């Protein structure tokens, strides 16, 4: 599974970076509407490849959709939508002062409580209690939240810094994706040869991932300035891409080795998707964005004290230009301050990981497919016999 996840994240994270490059350059060299035709052509190519290269195989009878907790799926979806809504639109609605945010929080908590209550007595809940309380699942959830909060500057700072402070246009901005793509390739290759083949410990790989994240934050903290060249951003973006893919592969593999029954394993993967793609992707930017808002207000107040009538350089400048210069300077100072705080947190986490004890290695075993088919056939027969009896 560790080998398989290396291929999965290479394709998924790599395509995310390359798709942005394709979109911007299509709009730059022609018209942005042509991107729709490119997507249609790729989808058609994918369907043709499936028809040509995938052999039709029917190894077992059709399984009816029995025992699926559709109500649980709906409640979990509402909970995640409420969580994402609060994190994304919290600043827009001024957080707890808005009835929309309070209503979303209340609705999300009610759905979460109902899900936990239903999981205590349902035979096949959408997400079971053993999957929720599994030690590796809880550990992966906490690590994801901390790590992706540290990496949330990717969504909050990098585009604003490159476009507003450095003055990059769209093509130069999207060229930064190649640096991240190179880091993803390097991170996947490193994880493949060390973690998947040589079976390095989870602790070792986690320490490597947080070390790369620490270098990323330290580089921006010490090097952020007004005259940074595009090529100088290769090192931090390269390390960010490598760190993200290493942490994702390692902790997704840890869920495989969590000792869960095969029927509960997809539920653990669902939790991993919730925490990585929804909670981790929205919680971190919300926290860092709010931190930036308060830090900006403080620094604007402190820096504006120098712009008085006694400052001859400021007296003869137009108000708009003066205010814009103040905002840019406060933005750079605020970014540097927040990078410093995140660097302290990353170093603290790295020390905790280094001092902890972790003997586990990726050595999980899955049942063979014929065993899985036999288990499904038995489950269907039992379900049909119960339905016939009722």
What does the secondary structure layout of this molecule look like, with pairings?
Elements: H1 2-29, H2 34-53, H3 70-89, H4 99-119, H5 129-133, H6 135-150, H7 153-165, H8 170-197, H9 202-223, H10 234-256, H11 265-303, H12 312-315, H13 319-355, H14 369-389
Walkthrough of the structure:
- This protein is mainly α and 390 residues long.
- 76% of the residues lie in helices and 0% in strands.
- It has 14 helices and no strands.
- The relative contact order is 0.13.
- The model has no long low-confidence stretch (mean pLDDT 81).
The helix tally amounts to 14
- Give the total of beta strands: 0
The portion of residues assigned to helices is over 70%
- Coarse shape: globular
Distance from first to last alpha carbon: 41 Å
Order of helices and strands: HHHHHHHHHHHHHH
Uncertain spans? none
**Category by helix and strand content:** mainly alpha
Rg from Cα:
25 Å
Summarize the structure.
The protein contains 14 helices and no strands. It is mostly helical.
Descriptive key words:
single chain; 390 residues; mainly alpha; 14 helices; 0% strand; globular
């Amino acid at each position: 599974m560790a080998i398989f996840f290396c291929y999965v994240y290479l394709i998924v994270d790599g395509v995310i970076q390359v798709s942005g490059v394709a979109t911007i350059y299509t709009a730059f060299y022609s018209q942005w509407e042509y991107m729709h035709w490119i997507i249609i052509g790729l989808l058609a190519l994918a369907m043709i490849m499936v028809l040509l290269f995938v052999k039709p195989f029917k190894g077992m009878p059709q399984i009816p959709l029995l025992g699926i907790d559709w109500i649980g799926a709906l409640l979990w979806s509402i909970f995640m939508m409420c969580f994402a809504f609060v994190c994304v639109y919290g600043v827009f609605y001024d957080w707890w002062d808005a009835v929309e945010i309070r209503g979303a929080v209340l609705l999300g908590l009610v759905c979460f409580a109902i899900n936990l209550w239903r999981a205590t007595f349902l035979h096949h809940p959408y997400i079971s209690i053993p999957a929720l309380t599994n030690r590796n699942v809880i550990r992966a959830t906490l690590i994801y939240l901390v790590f992706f909060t540290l990496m949330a500057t990717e969504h909050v700072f990098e585009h604003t810094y490159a476009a507003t402070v450095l003055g990059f246009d769209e093509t130069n901005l999207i060229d930064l994706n190649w640096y991240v793509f190179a880091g993803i390739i390097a991170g996947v290759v490193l994880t493949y040869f060390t973690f998947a083949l040589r079976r390095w410990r989870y602790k070792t790989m986690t320490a490597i991932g947080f070390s790369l994240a620490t270098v990323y934050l330290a580089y921006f903290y010490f090097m952020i300035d007004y005259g940074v060249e595009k090529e100088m951003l290769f090192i931090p973006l390269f390390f960010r891409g490598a760190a993200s893919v290493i942490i994702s592969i390692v902790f997704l593999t840890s869920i495989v080795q969590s000792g869960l029954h095969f029927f509960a394993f997809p539920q653990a993967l669902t939790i991993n998707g919730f925490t990585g793609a929804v909670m981790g992707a929205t919680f971190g930017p919300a926290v860092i964005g709010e931190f930036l808002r308060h830090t900006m207000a403080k620094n604007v107040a402190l820096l504006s004290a120098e712009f008085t009538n006694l400052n001859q350089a400021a007296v003869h400048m137009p108000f708009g230009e003066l205010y814009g210069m103040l905002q840019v300077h406060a933005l750079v100072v605020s970014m540097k301050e927040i990078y410093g705080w995140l660097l302290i947190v990353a170093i603290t986490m790295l020390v905790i990981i280094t001092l902890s004890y972790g003997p586990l290695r990726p050595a999980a075993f899955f049942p063979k497919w014929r065993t899985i088919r036999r288990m499904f056939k038995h489950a269907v027969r039992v379900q049909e016999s119960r339905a016939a009896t009722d």
